[in-house]
Amino acid sequence: MKGVESVEIEVVRLAHGRDLQLPDYATASAAGADLLAAIDQDIELGPLERRVVPTGISIALPVGFEAQIRPRSGLAAKHGVTVANAPGTIDADYRGEVGVILINLGKEPFRITRGMRIAQMVIARHARAVWREVSELDRTARGAGGFGSTGVTVGSAKTA
Question: So what's the architecture of 10-125 in CATH?
Answer without folding.
Answer: Distorted Sandwich (2.70)
